[in-house]
Amino acid sequence: MEHRAPPDPSPGLPLRLEKVSKRFEESLAVDDVTLHLAPGSFTALVGPSGCGKTTLLRIAAGLLPPDTGSVDPAPGTAGVSLCFQEPRLLPWRTASANVALPLELAGVPRAERRARAQEALARVQLPDSGGALPATLSGGMRMRVALARALVTDPRLLLLDEPFGALDEITRQELDDMLRALQEAHGFTALLVTHSIAEAVSLSDEVVVLSRAPGRVAARRDLSHVGHGAAARQSARFQAEVAALQTALDHAAHPGVPA
Fold first, then answer.
1. Which residue in 66, 117, 121, 193 could disulfide with 20, CB within 3.0 to 4.6 Å?
2. Torsional sign, CA 72, 75, 79, 83
3. How much is the pLDDT for 2?
């Protein structure tokens, strides 16, 4: 019998938040939240405004310490990258130089960082825009540059704070499809904060619904049966999951009101 080697493990980094709570002065932002993200999975966080979604993402990124609970990987672990809601590009640097900035800060030699920045821009379908300044790019193109900057270090865990929220619906869907294709191709683990239920269903393997502040896990939906891309968005399964998540979100926002 032919011996077959076991498949390579996912390059994605698992993420575990255990009983995490965070308070700001007198306000409890998140309370006793546990999340387990498997390597190579894509998870979305949704919930009412002010429920602590971004707080949890920043705790996962090591930008905020939890008051109680634990985070694994520990803050500062290599292989974790963050993409913000705004592009946050330096206006005096070209697209390529903005993408290369994390490599420059890490001391990567100039020739290598230029090559890797060009490769990252090609991944986000901007192979010819490396010399452009941010002011000359559309909003969607600036977000692609920001995503390329987050990907240039080849992260194993990508944390996304509603990066496409300010874009029109057509551009947003295009970038959603591109992001999901990149995640599947490179195998990194992804955690996305979004206010859009349709975006959460379109991108994710699982959606976690947080309750009104203090944010607690109110519901989870396994979306592994839905599929992704434009065709999936037209399916009955997709529409059913959007409706189910809207009901869960309404209940999380108004827990005292009967469903």
1. 66
2. positive
3. 36
Residues in contact with 95: Cβ distance below 8 Å, sequence separation at least 6, in sequence order: 89, 121, 126, 129, 130, 131, 132, 133, 134, 137, 145, 148
SS3 string, the chain, reads CCCCCCCCCCCCCCEEEEEEEEEECCEEEEEEEEEEECCCCEEEEECCCCCCHHHHHHHHHCCCCCCEEEEECCCCCCCEEEECCCCCCCCCCCHHHHHHHHHHHCCCCHHHHHHHHHHHHHHCCCCCCCCCCHHHCCHHHHHHHHHHHHHCCCCCEEEEECCCCCCCHHHHHHHHHHHHHHHHHHCCEEEEECCCHHHHHHHCCEEEEECCCCECEEEEEECCCCCCCHHHHCCHHHHHHHHHHHHHHHHHHCCCCCC
At residue 250, φ and ψ (nearest 5 deg) are -60, -40
**Is a pLDDT exceeding 90 seen at residue 4?**
no
Closest by CA position to 30, among listed 17, 41, 14: 17
